[in-house]
Amino acid sequence: MATEEKKKELDNPLFYNNRELSWLAFNERVLEEALDMDNPLLERLKFLAICSSNLDEFFMVRVAGLKDQVKAGFNKPENKAGLTPKQQLAKIAEINHELVRRQYESYQTIKPQLEKEDISILSIEDLTIEEIESLETYFNENIFPVLTPMAVDAYRPFPMLLNKSINLAVVIQDALDPNDNVKKTAIVQVPAVLNRFVQVEHETKYQYVLLEDIISHFIHKLFKGYQVHSITEFRITRNADMTIHEEGARDLLKEIEKELKKRKWGAAVRLEVRNNKYDDKVIHFLLGVLEIHKDDLYITNGPLDLTFLFKFHKTFSTIKDHLIYETLIPQPPRDLEGEDDIFEAATERDLFLHHPYESFEPVVDFVADAADDPHVLAIKQTLYRVSGDSPIIEALKRAAENGKQVTVLVELKARFDEENNVQWAKELEKAGCHVIYGMTYLKTHSKITLVVRKERDKIERFVHLGTGNYNDQTASLYTDMGIITSKRKFGIDATDFFNYLSGFTEKPKYHHLSMAPFDIRNDFIRYINNEIRFQKQHGNGRIIAKMNSLTDKNLIMKLYEASQAGVQIDLIVRGICCLRPGIKGISENIRVISIVGRFLEHSRIYYFHHNGDDRVFLSSADMMTRNMVKRVELLFPIYEPGVKSRLQKILSIMLSDNVKAREQHNDGTYRYIEAPKGAEKINSQMKLFDMAYRVLEDEE
C-alpha cells in the first residue's frame, strides 16, 4: 500500500470523478449513438430507448439511494470527489435535465427521417375523419373495457400508482350544471397490457398512434355528464432498491419474493410530464402528493417512456432491414476449428472463446453435451443472469433427470433479475438439482462451470471460466470472453470453490484462481507494485486494463502511484470511471478511453508487462469497490501463449479505435478520438468481427 504521505497527497477531491456524474457522462455517450448519423435510423431509435432504460434504473437505484441519505440527515461527503448527497442530487438534476432535453430533441429529429421511410408516429390531429372513426371503434372494443378511472377526493385518496406506469390526470367539471365551478380530478392508468402503439391502416405507409393519445382523445367517454377541462400525462419513477434482511431470513427465496412485491410501491423519486397539454395546477398537486422536489420534475418534448422504441425497432427490423445494422453471424471459435468433441479438444489445450465475434453455442454445448454424456458424473455452475428460455437451464434439468449430480448456485439478488432467478431456482429444484443461493451479504457474480467426467477409471475435470453471464441472448449483444480448460489444478480450484460456496469449509488456497472479496484487490495491488518496481529497474512498466467501470479508490490511488513512477497505463473503461487521467504530476501517464458502439463492451481483461514475462488475466470483476468487497468474483490467468497473443492483439485494436472510442480529459469530460487526416478509420468492434470472418486468412 502507499505510504500515509502518499495517500494524503492523492486524496485531493479534484483528482476524482464523482461516481453518479461519471455514470451520466456514460449515458451521454449512449445518447451520442442516437445522434450519430452513421448509425442506421432504427438503431438510433434503439439507442434512445437504451438511454431511457438506463435512466430508469439510475433513478430507481442511485438517485433513490441519495434521497434516502438526505432524508436520514446524512450529509457527509463521498470519499472521492467530496460531494455531499444534496450536492450530488443538485448536479445530477442540472446535468440530466440537459441530457433529457437533447434526448427528446433527437427523437423529434429522427421522426421526419422515419416519415421519409413511410413510418410515422402520428398525433390524433394528423388523422382524417375516417381514420379517427376507425380508432374510435378500436377504442370502444379494445381499450375502453380495460380502463379504470380513479376519482381523487376527500373520500378517495390519491391512488398508489405502479412504478414506471403512464397515467392521465383528468380534471373535469359538471357539464349539466353551469353554476357548478368545482373541478374534480381523476386518474386513468394507461394499461401496460395493451400495445403501446396502434396501427392506423394505410395502403402504402406504416402509421401509428400512441395508446395514451387514443385514450386522451376519447377520455370523455369515461366521464359522462362531465366536461373534460384538462388532461395531464405523467409517469412516476419509484425507489426500487431492495432491502433484504438476510440475517434471520430462514428462506432467502421467500424474502426475495416479499421484497419484489414492495418494489412496485417505493417512494417516488422522479415525475415525468409530457408537454403536450399539461395543467400547471395538476403538476403542483402531483409534486405535493408524491413529495417530489421540482428538480425531479422532467417535462418531455415527446412521448413519455421512450423504451417503447425497443418494440418499435423489433417490429420493423424485418420489414425495413436497410434501417438496421447489417446482420453479423458469430463464427465458429478459432480454437474449435476442425474439432468435433469439445471435451477431447480441451484435453489438448485451453480453448479460448470470444463473443459475439465467435459463437456462444460451444458454451451451451459444453453444458448440454455434459448433460447427455454417460461418462459425466457431476455438473456445477453459477448463474447470475440467464435468458428467458434458457437452453442451459434445460440442459441442467436434463442432467439431473439423467441421474447426474447437479449443483447450481442461482444468485437471487441479481438486480432486476430477481424474479426470473426465483422462478429458475424453483424449476431447477423441481428437476432434482441441488440449488444454493450464494453467501450471506455477498452477491455471487463469478461465471464458472465445472464438469466432472470419468472415463477408463480416470476422473477428469473440465472448467469453463468467463467474463459474462450464461445468457445465450445477451451473448449476441455483449462482448465477452471465456476459456475451457482441463488443466488439473484449475479443476482442483473449481472443486474447492464450489465446496466453499455450498458447504462449511475455510476459504481455499487456490493454485490459479483469485477470488473476491478482497483477494482480487490485493492481487491487483501486488501486480501494480511489480510494474512500479520494474519501471524503476528497467523503465518498462506497462499496464492495460479493460473493464466496465472503475470506482475503487484504493486501486485508483495505486494506479496514480504507478503513473507517478512512470508506468504507462491504458484503461478501456466503458462506463463509470472515477479516475481522472492527464493530471500533471498525478496521472499524466494514464490514458482512459471508453468505447460505446453496436455491442455492449462487457469483457474484463487485465494485462501487466511484468518485465517482458506478460501476465494476462480475465475476470468477472470490474475494479469497483462492490466487486472487490461485496461480491464473490473470480480472476483467472491465461497461460496458453497463443491465447495471450490474441488478447494482446485485441487490446491493441481497441486502443487504436478512432470511430467509437472517446477519450477522457483531465476535467472528466469525454471527446471522440478523431483519426488523423488520411489515416485508417478503425471501429474496433467491426474490425474484430472482420477478423473472425477472415480467421483463416488472418492465420496465414
Give a structural overview.
By secondary structure, the chain is an alpha/beta fold. The protein has four domains: about 1-100, Methane Monooxygenase Hydroxylase, Chain G, domain 1, CATH 1.20.58; about 120-305, polyphosphate kinase like; about 335-510, 2-Layer Sandwich (Endonuclease, Chain A); about 515-690, Endonuclease Chain A (Endonuclease, Chain A, 2-Layer Sandwich), CATH 3.30.870. It has 20 helices and 27 strands. α12 (about 390-400) runs parallel beside α13 and α18 (about 640-655) runs antiparallel to α19. The model is unreliable at about 245-250 (pLDDT under 50). It comes from Halobacillus mangrovi. Keywords: ATP-binding, Kinase, Magnesium, Metal-binding, Nucleotide-binding, Phosphoprotein, Transferase. GO terms for molecular function: ATP binding; metal ion binding; polyphosphate kinase activity.
